[in-house]
Amino acid sequence: MKICIIYHSESGNTRHVAQHIASACDAKLIEITDTARYNRLTRFLMVCKKARGEEKTTIEPASIDVSGYDQLVFGSPVWAFKPTPAIHSAIDAVKGCEGMKATAFFTHGGRPGQTAEVLQRWIEARGMKCVGNANIHQNDVENEKKTKELISILIKNSEPV
User: Fold this and answer.
1) For residue 109, what is the enclosing H or E element?
2) Do residues 136 and 77 touch, judged by C-beta distance below 8 A?
3) pTM of the predicted model, to two decimals?
């Protein structure tokens, strides 16, 4: 089973979780970077507004070929109760994903809001089958038991379509 984890992280929480998942299932990691230029003072406000509006942004890498994988995992922080514009752009940037199984995880410091539903909608709009999602609170990022639960949710339906 070849798994690719595509994630966006700003504070490091989502990166940390993605690294734990990758170690547990020998997955490839691809970190997405938002290349849009924001003023340090207004970045949070501007990006949260884009997240609420389910907008996209300019990312690096701009295109991601996933045709050699059996399953994808997408990871995002929660901003304004939704996934980030960068992960939205990343889901649109994947090539060779049609018919593939995908799961998603998201990290948050409060309530995840509509993040699960939005990620599922974006994944399925690209022709993938969303077979699960999981969330992890920032207080549980280092919790080994929570990480194992998260991995079992994300990988439980990992047989190829």
Assistant:
1) none
2) no
3) 0.92
Measured between alpha carbons, how far is residue 72 from residues 38, 39, 55, 68, 75 in Å? 30, 33, 22, 11, 10
Q: Which of 116, 117, 67, 127 is CA-nearest to residue 92?
A: 127
Give the C-alpha separation, 138 to 25, whole Å.
Answer: 22
- Token reading at 84: 């980030």
Q: What is the percent of the chain with per-residue pLDDT over 90, rounded to a whole number?
A: 74
Residue in the structure block whose two tokens are 């752009």 = 89
**DSSP 3-state assignment of 60?**
strand
pLDDT at 152: 81
Residue 156 has pLDDT above 70, yes or no: no
DSSP SS3 for 98: coil
pLDDT level of residue 147 (50, 70, 90 thresholds): confident
Q: Which long-range contacts (CB under 8 A, 24 or more apart) does 126-129 make?
A: 126/91, 126/92, 126/94, 126/97, 126/98, 127/97, 127/98, 127/99, 128/72, 128/97, 128/98, 128/99, 128/100, 128/101, 128/102, 129/99, 129/100, 129/101, 129/102, 129/161
